[in-house]
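INSTRUCTION: Work out how this chain folds

Token vocabulary: learned, describes local backbone geometry

RECORD BEGINS BELOW THIS LINE
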Amino acid sequence: MKSEMDIPIYGTMDQENLSGVDTLLISRTSAYEELTQKDALRDAVDRALDFGLNVYSLEYIDRNKYPDLYEKAKNNRLHIRHMIIGQDDYEKSQLYRGIYGHLGECVPVVGVFGTGRSQGKFTVQLMLRKLLRTRGYNACNFGTETHCELFGFEGCCPMEMNSSIRFPREQIIRYIQGEIRRIEIEYNPEIIVVGAQSGVVPYSFALKDDEYTVPTLSFLVATVPHIYVLCVNISDDREYIRDTIQVLECLGKGKVVALVASKIVKSVIKGTAFWETKIVDSMEYKTFSDEMFALFHLPTFDIMNESDSNEIVECILDYFSRRN
């Protein structure tokens, strides 16, 4: 079958479907494994190596758990790659951090944050990278997703995957500061776009809630953006949006200049544990946008709309031009 972008999609992994391919990208297999109790990661990597393919995985492939796969790759002169940063990476980052320069003062930093998951934060980062570069700006990115390097980001701290960070959590702020400084020195950017994971305000202080908010707060403190693009949901509690804006502007010191909201709305089906999605119409979206402006004096944009994307960039450039 073909996707809307004319990319072939296959339901099986066999030699015919993989003709002309040299690398297999493996997405998150853990959710599937929880349902099936099968080691889908091993199966995918093993088959890829049988077909002579390199592997890039968004899941951590533990060398101690899968020594035979690494040995097989080595014997076949193939590579297994996943995003991981260790103590050596931390030490290197501190060399850059110690080089003279004041983080956040030399280069404008735009922070992409959100009130929840699956809001298009990464899409916003890619969009800003593309449009800023199209306009002639040397824009660089520092992200928190394990697939950042696949999209050419200049730096990453894979905070969405605990097993990908192999040094103490209390060192994360210093690591990110060092990496931002490295980007400043190595790439001489005119603007840096940084992207966080979801949530800077806990919904409650219940068990495990801090696992989502504390890393994002660390990222906020480490990157000190001058301005923010905040991704929200149409269904978000309005006070929660207000709280998020206040935390970003008070703790982070930057200014929220725009909101981004998708027209795709998710909701739990009553009486079940399943989600349903719907696409709101233009009138409903405008009503929400008008409400956001009335409450927070901020424009709301649809990231999938080309005109809106360009307006977000205009908001950013206008802010920095007035600031200078």
